[in-house]
Design brief:
mainly beta, Jelly Rolls, six-stranded antiparallel sheet, four-stranded mixed sheet, 4 helices, globular, binds 6-O-phosphono-beta-D-fructofuranose
Length: about 240
C-alpha cells in the first residue's frame, strides 16, 4: 500500500509506522490481539523544497519532516504516534526540543515531563491547521489524531540525535490515553498530575507564528537555534509552557 506526498516537485516515500510497532503502547490490548498488522502513519523525513534548501538545512543540523496520520481507532483509543523523548544535548542538563505545525486536520499533542521516576507535568495542546505547538526540552510527547480527517503535520528538529521510545514502551504508553470517552490515566504511572491545557501560540522570538508556514524559516535558520542550543533559551521555554 503506502502513501506518498509531493514536496518540492518530488514524490516522497515515507517510513511507515505499523500497528505491530505499537504493541506495547496501545491501551486496548484485547483489540490489538484481534486485528492483523496494518499501516498506521507515514513519516517523510529530511524534506526540502530545493537542493539549495537541503544544503542549508543539513549545514544547520536541522530536519524538516512531515507526518501524515489518517483517522483510525485502536479499539476505543484514537490513533496516536508511538511516543518518544529526546536525549540531553551533549554536556547539558536539558534535552532537545521540537516544534510542530499542523498543515491539515487537527492534532492533540500530549506532553509529559519526567523528573526522576515521576511524571511531574502533563500538558495537552489542541492544534488546528496553521497552529504551532512547541515541545519544550524534557517533555516526552505523543500526537493523537482524534478526528475523522487526515492529520498532516510538519516538524523542525535538530538532526543530531535519535529519539528514545523505551520510556513509553516500558510504561505501556504515555501518562494519558485519549479514548472515545475522553482522557484516561495510565495507572502504571504513580501520582499523575491532572492535565493542564495550553493553547497554540505565536513565538516571535523563534520566528514562529500560527498561520505562517514555518518551512520558511529555512531562510532564517538562526531563529531555529533554540532546537540545537536550548540551554540558551531556558527562561523562554518556561514562560511558554507555564502559561
Ligand atoms: O517517532 P514517532 O513517535 O513515531 O513520531 C512520529 C514523528 O515524530 C518525528 O520523529 C519527529 O519527532 C517525526 O519525524 C515523525 O514523523
Amino acid at each position: 500500500m503506502g502513501y506518498t506526498i509531493e514536496f518540492g516537485g518530488v514524490e516522497r516515500q515515507p517510513n511507515i509506522r505499523m500497528l505491530h510497532d505499537m504493541k506495547e503502547v496501545v491501551y486496548d490490548h484485547e483489540w490489538f490481539r484481534s486485528v492483523d498488522d496494518m499501516e498506521l502513519y507515514y513519516m517523510f523525513r529530511h524534506l526540502s523544497l530545493s537542493e539549495e534548501d537541503l544544503k542549508i538545512i543539513n549545514k544547520s543540523h536541522l530536519r524538516y519532516d512531515i507526518t501524515v496520520i489518517p483517522p483510525a481507532m485502536f479499539g476505543s483509543e484514537f490513533i496516536k504516534t508511538a511516543g518518544h523523548y529526546h536525549p540531553n544535548v551533549p554536556g547539558q542538563e536539558i534535552s532537545y526540543p521540537e516544534v510542530y505545525q499542523v498543515l491539515e486536520g487537527e492534532a492533540t499533542y500530549i506532553l509529559q515531563k519526567h523528573v526522576g521516576d515521576d511524571v511531574v507535568d502533563t500538558v495537552v495542546i489542541k492544534a488546528k491547521k496553521g497552529d504551532i505547538a512547541l515541545i519544550p526540552p524534557d517533555y516526552g510527547h505523543v500526537t493523537v489524531n482524534a478526528s475523522d480527517e487526515i492529520l498532516k503535520m510538519a516538524n523542525w528538529v535538530c538532526c543530531d540525535f535519535s529519539s528514545s521510545y523505551a520510556p513509553f514502551r516500558d510504561m505501556e504508553g504515555g501518562a494519558y490515553y485519549l479514548l472515545e470517552s475522553g482522557f484516561m490515566k495510565n495507572h502504571r504511572y504513580e501520582n499523575l498530575p491532572e492535565i493542564r491545557y495550553i493553547t497554540p501560540t505565536d513565538i516571535p522570538e523563534f520566528g514562529l507564528f500560527c498561520g505562517r508556514d514555518m518551512y520558511d524559516l529555512v531562510n532564517d535558520t538562526e531563529k531555529l537555534e533554540f532546537l540545537k542550543s536550548p540551554q540558551n533559551f531556558a527562561g523562554l521555554f518556561e514562560s511558554i509552557i507555564n502559561v
